Amino acid sequence: MNFSLYLITFVFGTIVGSFFNVCISRLPAGASVIFPASHCPSCQQRLSPLDLVPVLSFFLLRGRCRYCQAKISARYPLVEMVTGFLFVGLVLAFPVDKAALSFVFNVIFVSFLILITFIDLEQQLIPDVLILTGFLAAASFYGLKFAWNLPRLDYGFLLWPLFGTVAGYGTMFLVRFIGGIFYKKEVLGEGDVFLAAMIGAFLGWQKVLLSLFLAYLIAAVIALVLLLLKKVNLQSLVPFGPALAVGALVMIFWGEQLISCYLRFIFY
């Protein structure tokens, strides 16, 4: 095992995660993610490099601002660690020396999923800019892969993201439409529908359908636990974006194996 490679990847992931924290805080408000420089949201004091060391600064400062002692959200080290571990997982699943394009593609896809998950958890919304940029990234990947493997791929390959988009959007639109009729209220946000379409653009139609099934299963389990703990009630709105993101992550790492198992179960 190349421990140094995994360590470097993890550190790089935490640095990227630190930038993601800025995006999570600012994108919902439509603010620039570059200017102004990182600062304490309580006292507005500009943070020094020592305050911005991923993960470590949070624990060295005991979760409080160095200048005003305001509490720092645990979301900051959590996002950094999650990003670091997921990047290491991608190195293991898609070795850079053997699948460079797939590795870069999945790093970009996972980055969108991380941002959307934590923004939806905090704000219960999914910024349009992330969905639109995600579609553009997926289209760019399929175009590059087609050009890279031109002698071995037919033009039908370029339709994969389109089929995935239609499958993701169509499935969620039907759930939203039928659920609205049955429950007499909105059961899914419009952002969730477009997120499913974006996931479909990345994964293709087979994987997106299975990822949606997993997302509903995950959401049902979490909702049941929250109901039993009396953290929510039947009228509460629970963000569905994180469940969609987790379902997509499962398909990134184990999608081929799950589809193979499913097909063997059905046909044998």
Helix content: 55-70%
Fraction in beta strands = under 5%
Describe the sheet with the most strands. Answer: none
Q: Termini separation (Å)?
A: 37 Å
Secondary-structure content class: mainly alpha
H/E element sequence: HHHHHHHHH
What is the number of beta strands?
0
Number of domains: 2
The low-pLDDT segments are none
Average pLDDT: 91
Overall 3D shape: globular
Number of helices: 9
Radius of gyration: 20 Å
Key phrases:
0% strand; single chain; globular; mainly alpha; 268 residues; 9 helices; 2 domains
Description:
It is a single chain. This protein is mainly alpha-helical and 268 residues long. It has two domains: 1-93, no CATH class; 128-268, no CATH class. 68% of the residues lie in helices and 0% in strands. The protein contains nine helices and no strands. The longest helix has 27 residues, at 241-267. The relative contact order is 0.09. The mean pLDDT is 91.
Q: How is the topology of this model organized?
A:
Layout: H1 3-26, H2 56-60, H3 75-93, H4 100-123, H5 128-148, H6 160-183, H7 190-203, H8 205-228, H9 241-267
Helix pairs in contact: 1-3, 1-4, 3-4, 4-5, 4-9, 5-7, 6-7, 6-8, 7-8, 7-9, 8-9
Give a brief rundown of this model.
The chain is an all-alpha fold.
